[in-house]
Design a protein that fits this description.
Oligomer: heterodimer
Strand order of the largest sheet of chain B: 1-2
Shape of chain B: globular
Number of strands of chain B: 2
Largest sheet of chain B: 2 strands, antiparallel
Distance between the termini of chain B: 14 Å
Order of helices and strands of chain B: HHHHHHEEHHHHHHHHH
Helix content of chain B: 55-70%
Distance between the termini of chain A: 47 Å
Structural class of chain B: mainly alpha
Low-confidence stretches of chain B: 1-10, 585-592
Largest sheet of chain A: 2 strands, antiparallel
Mean pLDDT of chain A: 89
CATH class of chain B: Mainly Alpha
Number of domains of chain B: 1
Number of domains of chain A: 2
Helix content of chain A: 55-70%
Radius of gyration of chain A: 22 Å
Strand order of the largest sheet of chain A: 1-2
Order of helices and strands of chain A: HHHEEHHHHH
CATH topology of chain B: Cytochrome C Oxidase, Chain A
CATH class of the largest domain in chain A: Mainly Alpha
CATH superfamily of the largest domain in chain A: Cytochrome c oxidase, subunit III, four-helix bundle
Number of strands of chain A: 2
CATH topology of the largest domain in chain A: Four Helix Bundle (Hemerythrin (Met), subunit A)
Amino acid sequence: MTDHALTDAGGTLSGPNNLRSIATDLSSDQRAFKNVPWGKAMMWIFLLSDTFVFSCFLIAYMTARMSTTVPWPNPSEVFALTIAGTTLPLILIAIMTFVLISSSGTMAMAVNFGYRRDRRKTAILMMLTALLGAAFVGMQAFEWTKLIHEGVRPWGNPWGAAQFGSSFFMITGFHGTHVSIGVIFLLIVARKVWRGDYDTERRGFFTSRKGNYEAVEIMGLYWHFVDLVWVFIFAFFYLW
Amino acid sequence: MVDVPLGPAGLVPPAEVEDVELYHPHSWVTKYVFSQDAKVIAIQYSATALAVGLIALVLSWLMRLQLGFPGVFSFIDANAYYQFITMHGMMMVVYVLTALFLGGFGNYLIPLMVGARDMVFPYANMLSFWLYLLAVLVLVASFFAPGGPTGAGWTLYPPQAITSGTPGGQDWGIILMLVSLMIFIIGFTMGGLNYVVTVLQGRARGMTLMRMPLTVWGIFTASVMALLAFPALFVGAVMMLFDRVLGTSFFMPAMVEMGQQTDRNGGSPLLFQHLFWFFGHPEVYIVALPAFGIVSDLISTHARRNVFGYRMMVWAILAIGGLSFIVWAHHMYVSGMNPYFGFFFATTTLIIAVPTAIKVYNWVLTLWRGDIHLTVPMLFALAFIVTFLNGGLTGLFLGNVVVDVPLSDTMFVVAHFHMVMGVAPILVIFGAIYHWYPKVTGRMLNDTLGKLHFWVTFLGAYAIFFPMHYLGLIGMPRRYHDVADFAFIPASAHTLNAFITVVALIVGAVQLVFLFNLIWSLRHGREAGGNPWRATTLEWQTPTTPPPHGNWGNETPVVYRWAYDYSVPGAKEDFLPQNHPPIAPATAGAAP
């Protein structure tokens, strides 16, 4: 991309002109956000939109939880596992959260190596991220199976409000879908990095456009977002 | 008018964005069917939306036949009537207006008006149309599904939307409706991201945000709003689909259905209303803001005068966009929500009148002492201002809780929202089609047919919806299948209903004249040339008309001025295109 200095509005960054120069920068020539490639801008705006989706899901769940006539099941009992005779509340969720947050770390490293054009390390770290993501989805599948065996259904459960199961399957399902899609795209981008598509400017199969290493960062944005959403789900669904 | 800080290179700032490499279609199919060219996609969107509009128009005819002549048409029973209402409303609001303004005009005008070669991600743009088409097909399929389409009312309020008394509630109707909405939203997101990013990051050199035509501002703001408002509808649709298919109780309270206690309990029907209107109110402005923008450009062009208060127009668009997210519960004054909410939402609703009034004043001031050409697009634009003002004023009535409560669910509401978000945006759509058709096809639409179309549509719309205000005030309820036998409805109201129906049939029929004009002019219209309206904006400055794939030939345009340099003193012509270099470099081009 072109040199930032050429398009600098020349305003000072201190004093009362500060806001004005921000506005001038934003509304200036060609691009509102300088040096932000199209794909990255698009991903940010998509994530903003997706934030609204998850917010609506979580707010709807909270409304349902408050409006039910039957008591809500206690999450720390429902999500407890008995391992070697000790019952540990939320142990599986804790491990899942740890795995997902670790995967954000590996993703950040992948982005870093991507910008250094270190193909091998980038691809390995992305595949590691995908592996951790897949492990997360696997544990979620285990959790779903366990709850289903205990009689939890979208329309009812043995312990209380039916909306518990409905919200649980809907929200974790929607988040799990996001993680799964992320894993698939991580693998696709990792393959492209590994093969050197972004160095040889090989064209995309569908879009027939040349890709570049920004794809790694865009993938990273998505992955961190999915991770962040999980933190809110963890806080509002499991800890409340 | 707007100062742009220039780079050291001089008047023309250096390009920040490399010229994009376009996808070159190899076959007829990739050129016209699975096309990645925003202009072809725009035409596909528009044609589909117009086809859906025709279906919705026929549905409105059928409803009017029942209301005007109750009992005469035996095939319109109560179930059919509710199905017509539901499909007419949902089709018009989402599948016609939203799709036409954003998918149609957005796709055609954004790249041309900001001087881009195409949308930033043409492939996603193409998928956007095909998902839209799929959504339309799923929706139309519900006419042929067992039990017919859903008759839940276009707002799809639970619990009745999914109970057995409602047509389609326990059949396929509601499922197909919800699935279609979800597909539409996913498809729209792909397009909407394109529109927003193209405006933000893909403009031509010299095209600063404050030089963009107001059309682009309107479509841009509406796209951002749609990206933030549709998620609420998406979530509502997912949850209702689960309620219907999986037997969850998100929206279902404990209730008795057909004399039987259902096995649902604890859900909140109000929750759906909140989700729906958190989408539904911004949706009004998703439709209105592009109309505002287009009308500003039409008025300016056809009155040969710069838009009055351009900056205020932009800020008003943004203010309306922002405010529209905090007014949604004014649709719910009688829903049983906490009455104190009414105070807050009535206040925010009335505040919206301020930026809206700024826009109306500015349109009028743009016309003031202008060189007004009463062309067909201009007639439609002027009609829009009157109609929108009209609908907006009744909005002030309905925004107040105490006035709204008696008027709720009467024909007054029907008249209000049809004026403000039915007729008004449709008038703009017609005006815009008459205005931009020469760019799309290279030929003018027939003027005489256009004027016939305009006068019948405009006067007819008033003949239809003006009396409805009165019907509402005397208490005629809306969404009633048969109003023949109510003692409180006077005989005069029935006469009026019959009158409205006859006018509605005429206004509907005159749209066929418009369709004929569209098709006939394609071959027989007068040659338009590149810039028949002598307009300033970039889309009229393309090297060839209709613009080819890539729009601009070898070089993308460089923009030197805002979009409204009409009747500039000292200029040779009465308009200066946006890519016209400064006329007096010594003064206009002085380095800052």
